[in-house]
């Protein structure tokens, strides 16, 4: 992350909160363990229902492709978070690794679902995937705390997107709706961790509102608009 204000006391995560970070990590692991899943469980494998293997409508396809092209950039998100949080307490760094392992299934599930249903142009989608990853991901976050704020907002927005997409796709493709809701559950758990790290800082010192507001005012989702337009 870009450290713009090295003398700003509200740039870094507060070391006195490490025990709270550890408790949040333990809470997340427990919740995720109770809801462990694998992407193959949500694919229309061996189904006799023709509509469950039929191509998606243009609206449903656009929703899934948009989600897919966002999820495939996971390597960049992980790299950015890992670099930006390398000086943070151990529980924060461990959560990023856990988060990555859980997020990794999302793009695999979405791409596999599109393949199984014969949806979209495979070659065009492949080119879009390459273009999205080649575009990378850059940001202007001012330090670890802003990184926590940004990621909390991003996870909340992604959760909302998946739930809305599930409602749109539910009647046409119930298995797809179930898959999207399952991904949304992951995003909910991830959002809760980042959100509560932010909340712990606000409870400690209300001056953390300043960097929080700065992130909110300039928030943008982490994708390449040019690739999505194409």
Give the helices and strands, then pairings.
Elements lengths: L17 H17 L23 H14 L2 H11 L5 H27 L5 H14 L8 H26 L4 H31 L4 H9 L7 H5 L1
Helix pairs in contact: 1-4, 1-7, 2-4, 2-5, 2-6, 3-4, 4-7, 6-7, 6-8
Task: Describe the model.
- This protein is mainly α and about 230 residues long.
- It has one domain: Ribonucleotide Reductase, subunit A (Orthogonal Bundle).
- It contains 9 helices and no strands.
- Helix 2 packs parallel to helix 5 (about 120-135).
- The longest helix is centred in the last third of the chain and has 31 residues, at about 175-205.
- It is elongated, with a radius of gyration of 19 Å.
Distance between the termini: 29 Å
What form results from the Cα inertia axes? elongated
Number of domains: 1
Give helix and strand order, one letter per element, not per position: HHHHHHHHH
The biggest beta sheet is recorded as: none
- Indicate the percent of residues in helices: 55-70%
CATH class: Mainly Alpha
Number of continuous helical runs = 9
Number of strands: 0
Rg from Cα: 19 Å
Question: What is the CATH superfamily classification?
Answer: Ribonucleotide Reductase, subunit A
Please name the defining characteristics of this protein.
single chain, 230 residues, mainly alpha, Ribonucleotide Reductase, subunit A, disordered N terminus
Briefly, what is this?
The chain has 9 helices and no strands. The chain has helices spanning about 20-35, 60-70, 75-85, 90-115, 120-135, 145-170, 175-205, 210-215, 225-230.
